[in-house]
């Protein structure tokens, strides 16, 4: 059985390691931030301690056997419900929160490692997670540039321009339009057209589209 001091050390260590990962997520203002990652890591560590040492008093009882991994194993599958809550399906081909869900799942593993006394594995994993979250993203952006515009808003005078005419100008350079939505304003001269694109669009192509739209009679303004 673990001493009280060892239990406290493991729980505090789990909170600290979870907090390190949570700070990086908190910096980007994601839903699952500092407190969430700390709680997941501490909770996983506690469950591991309970699973491995919490039933020591019944060992030796006839017809009773102990599997120290049985309770802890439920964390691996159970954390999926929490991770799913961070994933947002904004629209077609646009999903956010997968990285945060992955960090929660990994932090749960860190908590299990700390609860089992595997401090080196837990610290190394935490270091790697922080490097992946903070350092790899800028590298990813540099290697795999995605110059695209997620959304374009066009302010129009509905009496002087049609949606068909606008769509023709948008697709003139082979740009694929995913969706066009009209929001009616207080007057016909204050209507908004919101355009979303199916795939990444080069900046030069978008600037060309903006220039053509601004030249149309009835277009009052374009915002990217």
From the structure above, extract its key features.
Alpha-Beta Plaits; four-stranded antiparallel sheet; two-stranded antiparallel ribbon; 14% strand
Short description:
The chain has helices at 4-27, 34-53, 70-84, 98-115, 119-134, 136-143, 163-170, 203-215; strands at 88-91, 94-96, 151-156, 177-183, 191-197, 219-223. With 224 residues, it is of the alpha+beta class.
Taken as a percent bin, the fraction of beta residues is 5-15%
What is the chain-wise order of helices and strands? HHHEEHHHEHEEHE
The gross shape turns out to be elongated
The major sheet is characterized as: 4 strands, antiparallel
Number of strands: 6
Rounded average pLDDT: 78
Name the poorly predicted regions: none
SSE map:
Elements: H1 4-27, H2 34-53, H3 70-84, E1 88-91, E2 94-96, H4 98-115, H5 119-134, H6 136-143, E3 151-156, H7 163-170, E4 177-183, E5 191-197, H8 203-215, E6 219-223
Antiparallel strand pairs: 1-2, 3-5, 3-6, 4-5
